[in-house]
Amino acid sequence: MQEDFHYYATYCAAYIAGYSHEDSLKIAYSAQFVDCCSATLLKKVHAPLAAATTQLQSELMDARTDIIGLQNITRIWASFHFLPYDLYAAVKAWSKAYRNKYRLICKPNSDLIVKTVNLAKDRDLESVGIAMHVMADTWAHAYFAGTPSQVINNTDFEFYEVINRGSGETYERRIGFRHNPAVKDDPSRSLYINSVNNGSENSIMNLGHGRAGHLPDYSFIHYRYLPAWGNYDVIDKDNPSDYIHAFCQMIYAMKYLQGRIDTFEKGKYDFDAISEWQGHIKEILSRRQLDSSAEWKAFGEELSGQEVVPFDIHDYQTEYGNASRELKDDTSFGRFIIAAMRQKSMVTNAVFESGNMLTGFSVDYTKKGFRGMKDFKKLVKLFENN
């Protein structure tokens, strides 16, 4: 997903769920900031690098692809953008290395999304925003894994877009891919950009949904393709349907996080909450354009009657930079850092406990104390003080 959904649509979902205008903006900011919090930015503000929630293209191009480098990549992308669906999935007649990668495939309604939401319960708004980003991406990024892998993330060149003629009639059009990042995707001709096919198993070109380009990130597109992990059997990906499920699941989850409902269960969606605007939301999601920020922004302002200010990556950085060392954790950026490390620690520990080493060694600090990167000592101190 991109800014139109992670920021503006998340604001709308938060407001419908019952948060105030101000709190909805903070949640939306943190949800979008997950796509911005790179090691490069953290170095700039002298913050812990363990809080990185994304990697810039320039960082990925220079990233190591030995075991240590791959573990770092996987910790970031599996924790925040491709949450694994089933870490114990049965895979017959394949090697252990293949099984470990297969078990990182992302889909919605996993046990880990329940843990992600519960991790944000009774915590700050930054934690809520991170959880909403992770939840939304389980829908958009379904069927891909957050680790470089040709045998999992590669696709066949056969991609077809299912286009609605109106009145329920559809037709299929072959999707064409280009590799020139200087040109834009062209929905009018079903021409999109994807990563270059690379036969190396651990190539960065085979990370996540690179081989499908930005198709998973566009709410309007309904397409069919053949993934490598499924022996190239057809996957039908209906993004308008998936995105509205994501939106309603976010509303349901945020009602739980506020204490308005008692439990959060996977596979539940608050469609009743959007009954008044369902047609309008579906129209926004189905509009054939690369960015629907303006439409979501207008809808959010219609809901609250207040301005939904544009996302600014620099917000909160000055506050964090000017705060004393003792007070940095009490800033919005500081709280985001703690929440990000908490989420990454939870997912990494779950992967490690399943017997999968793709995110490296992990120890549950809540049970056994600190073992690992020094940046995570911050989490231990917080745990000991609560």
Please tag this protein with its features.
386 residues, alpha+beta, 2 domains, 16 helices
Task: Describe the 3D structure.
There is one protein chain. With 386 residues, this protein is of the alpha+beta class. The protein folds into two domains: 3-142 and 243-281 and 296-354, no CATH class; 152-238, no CATH class. It is built from 16 helices and six strands. It has helices spanning 3-17, 21-33, 39-44, 57-61, 67-80, 96-102, 111-120, 125-140, 150-153, 239-258, 278-286, 293-304, 317-322, 332-353, 365-368, 377-385, and strands at 160-166, 169-174, 176-178, 191-193, 222-225, 235-238. The strands form two sheets. It has a four-stranded antiparallel sheet with strand order 2-1-5-6. It has a two-stranded parallel sheet with strand order 3-4. β1 and β2 (169-174) form a beta hairpin. The longest helix is centred in the last third of the chain and has 22 residues, at 332-353. Residues 369-375 and 382-386 have low confidence and may be disordered.
Count of alpha/pi helices: 16
Q: Assess the beta-strand content as a share of residues.
A: 5-15%
Note poorly predicted spans.
Answer: 369-375, 382-386
Total beta strand runs: 6
What is the residue-averaged pLDDT? 92
Structural class: alpha+beta
Q: How many domains, as an integer?
A: 2
Main sheet, how many strands, which sense, barrel?
4 strands, antiparallel
- End-to-end CA span: 35 Å
Strand order of the largest sheet: 2-1-5-6
Percent helix range:
40-55%
Shape: globular
Query: How big is the Rg?
Result: 20 Å
Order of helices and strands: HHHHHHHHHEEEEEEHHHHHHH
